[in-house]
Amino acid sequence: MNSKDAAHRAKDSNAGEVAGEVAGKAAGERAGESAGHHAASVSARIRARLEAAQERFHANDNIARYIEPGEMEQLQAEVQARLQDVLRALVIDVDNDHNTQETARRVAKMYLKEIFAGRYAKPPPVTEFPNIGQLNELMIVGPLRVRSACSHHLCPIIGKLWIGVMPNQHSNLIGLSKYARLAEWIMCRPQIQEEAVAQVADLLQEKMSPDGLAIVMEAEHFCMHWRGVRDTDAKMTNSVMRGSFLKDDSLRREFLTLLNHNRG
């Protein structure tokens, strides 16, 4: 090799090293920008507030107190962007497939404003009335149609809910439609049925302070219908009994008898 060829090779090698350094620096800057973007994302800000307050934020928890004005729109945009990445990871051509070009936007809106709205919205307003008539007879509300999603697979849960209340003279009474609104607020979150029913019971106990409270839920779970065992007939039924419904066998029997009659 003559001195001229050696000089050219040295020059090419130096150019390659410089190009590599430039590319590495650019990649590092992009990674830094990406990390900075995620650190400053609205979901990160909300999560930081929750952690600072030592507040739990499981799938079926409500976090409305920690969301500031204007952040829901930002959160929806962030979820939309990340869902677009999920679709691309599934090797779906979202740029050219007209059926999926708007899917990420639709799903983000559906999650935050509809099927998971109970996580992000404040509780519905409920007017509580004093029990002036000192009612102390069993009341049953239902069946209320309820919809949720299983927190394990995000598949639909669709079913019916019955609520039994035994008021006392100090109990608060609420409007009939409010049972449905409160149940919907609890159910519009990723849930498991056992916890959802207990949350509905806790909320009604807090609002009404009755002597007794009974809730029964019967639902179809599409994590069984749609996938896995694909059993299309199976349903799950569970109940929560509080106060006098636990202590008084005849009251519990009356509630269950009327409920079964109502089921027809």
Protein described:
The chain is built from ten helices and seven strands. The protein has 264 residues and is an alpha+beta fold. The chain has two domains: 59-120, GTP cyclohydrolase I, N-terminal domain (GTP Cyclohydrolase I, Chain A, domain 1, Orthogonal Bundle), CATH 1.10.286.10; 130-263, GTP cyclohydrolase I, C-terminal domain/NADPH-dependent 7-cyano-7-deazaguanine reductase, N-terminal domain (GTP Cyclohydrolase I, domain 2, 2-Layer Sandwich). The strands form two sheets. The protein has a five-stranded mixed sheet with strand order 5-2-3-6-7. A two-stranded antiparallel sheet has the order 1-4. Strand 2 and strand 3 form a beta hairpin. Helix 3 (71-89) crosses helix 4 (103-115) and helix 6 (176-187) crosses helix 7. The radius of gyration is 28 Å and the shape is globular. The termini are far apart.
What's the topology here?
Layout: H1 3-39, H2 42-52, H3 71-89, H4 103-115, H5 117-120, E1 128-130, E2 139-150, E3 156-166, E4 172-174, H6 176-187, E5 190-191, H7 193-208, E6 212-221, H8 222-225, E7 236-243, H9 244-247, H10 249-263
Parallel strand pairs: 2-5
Antiparallel strand pairs: 1-4, 2-3, 3-6, 6-7
Helix pairs in contact: 3-4, 6-7
Biased composition (Low complexity): 15-26
Biased composition (Basic and acidic residues): 1-14, 27-36
EC number: 3.5.4.16
